Structures are given as structure tokens and as C-alpha cells.
Amino acid sequence: MNIETLELPGCVVLRPADELDLLGHLGFAEQVDDLLRDGKRRFVVDMELVTYVGTSSARALMAIQEKARSVSGRLALAEVRDGARFALD
């Protein structure tokens, strides 16, 4: 899975593309873990290019959110499309 990363003052924007499925979320979670280890705490996941989110990926996003919260951080989703919204509602 291709995940574009843009570091802005105060947050990191992550832009995954295509489907966020069982295999895709593993790389995504690993990338966020690396960023957390580097001291990043606030994340925005721009979902504009994501066409599908599997239920395991939705659970992984919740786990990532909990990891961020555990270090006083935050994860927010933006631009969620209809094809991805089902698993996230």
C-alpha cells in the first residue's frame, strides 16, 4: 500500500490510497508506530483516495487511535468516501 506522508507543524498527514484491507492496514499501522516512536503525536488520515476499508482495518484504525491517545496524541479521519464509510460508521 502506498501511503504518502506530509509532516506539518503540529501534525502528520497520512494519505493512504486504494483499499485499506487486511494486508494494507499492517503497513499503515507499522508506519504510524514508527512515527509515534519518533515523537509524533497528532495525525490526520486523509481518506480521500481510499475506496474500501475492511473491518479489520477499521479495528486497526481504532487501535492506532488508542495508541496515540495513550501518549496524549490524537488521530482524526478526513475526507472519508462512501466506499470506506460503511466499515467506519
Please provide a written account of the structure.
The chain has 89 residues and is an alpha/beta fold. Helix 1 runs parallel beside helix 2. The radius of gyration is 12 Å and the shape is globular. The longest helix has 16 residues, at 22-37. The mean pLDDT is 86. The protein is 44% helix and 33% strand. The strands form two sheets. It has a four-stranded mixed β-sheet, covered by helices on one side.
How are the elements arranged and paired?
Elements: E1 3-8, E2 11-16, E3 18-20, H1 22-37, E4 42-46, E5 50-53, H2 55-70, E6 74-78, H3 82-88
Parallel strand pairs: 2-4, 3-5, 4-6
Antiparallel strand pairs: 1-2
Helix pairs in contact: 1-2
What are the salient characteristics of this protein?
4-stranded mixed sheet; 89 residues; single chain; alpha/beta
Question: What amount of the residues lies in strands?
Answer: 25-35%
User: What value does the Rg take, in angstroms?
Assistant: 12 Å
Helix fraction by DSSP (H/I, runs of at least 4): 40-55%
Spatial separation of the terminal alpha carbons = 23 Å
Backbone shape: globular
Largest sheet: 4 strands, mixed
